[in-house]
Amino acid sequence: MSVHDFSVKNIRGEEVSLSQYAGKLLLIVNTASKCGLTPQYDGLQKLYEQYGPEKLMILGFPCNQFNHQEPGSEDEIASFCKLNHGVTFPLFAKIDVNGYNADPLYKYLTKEAPGLLGIKAIKWNFTKFLVDGNGKVLKRFAPTDAPEEIGKFIEKLLASGAHA
Question: Which of 2, 76, 150, 164 is the most buried (most CB within 10 A)?
């Protein structure tokens, strides 16, 4: 099994197979518009402009599970991200990342790359998962790990040819 085996709904409600991203690094992020970490959208967009969409796809999954910091509709979220942060990377429908109703993709991600002390639960908005071109989960990054720091890790991967 790999990330490429999953299908998710994009922010417009259309079904998207993650297999379409085969051969590219993926940075999968649970996002929120009203969080202290929301400015990370800017850094994520810079990464996307630098490496994507040929080598890197950033996939944003809005989530309202952390202090209700993503209360808007999908249309409101898409508009906010575009107008305030210039986001052009793909955004997906709002999901749960923890608990019984967690999206199957996130159940898989947290199983493959648990956090500190083996804890699977997502702790907060902007937890990031780096996935290789074969759909294998490589690394989990904490909410406070800045996109710029992740960019250094991505650069090393790309230089070593590990994305394919």
Answer: 150
Q: How many residues does the chain have?
A: 164
**Catalytic (active site) residue 81:** no
pLDDT the model gives residue 158: 85
Q: Are 40 and 126 in contact (CB under 8 A)?
A: yes
Q: What is the pLDDT of residue 163?
A: 59
Give the sign of the dihedral formed by CA 111, CA 65, CA 39, CA 12.
Answer: positive
Write the DSSP assignment of 21-66 as a string of letters: GTTSEEEEEEE-SSSTTTTHHHHHHHHHHHHTTTTEEEEEEE--TT
Model pTM? 0.95
* Catalytic residue (choose from 18, 26, 29, 35): 35
Class of domain 3-157: alpha beta
Do 48 and 154 meet the contact criterion of CB atoms below 8 Å apart? no
DSSP H or E segment with residue 7: strand 7-9
Q: Which residues contact 91 (CB under 8 A, 6 or more apart)?
A: 10, 11, 31, 60, 61, 62, 77, 78, 81
* Helix-helix angle 40-51:74-85, to 10 degrees: 80
N-terminal to C-terminal alpha carbon distance within the chain? 17
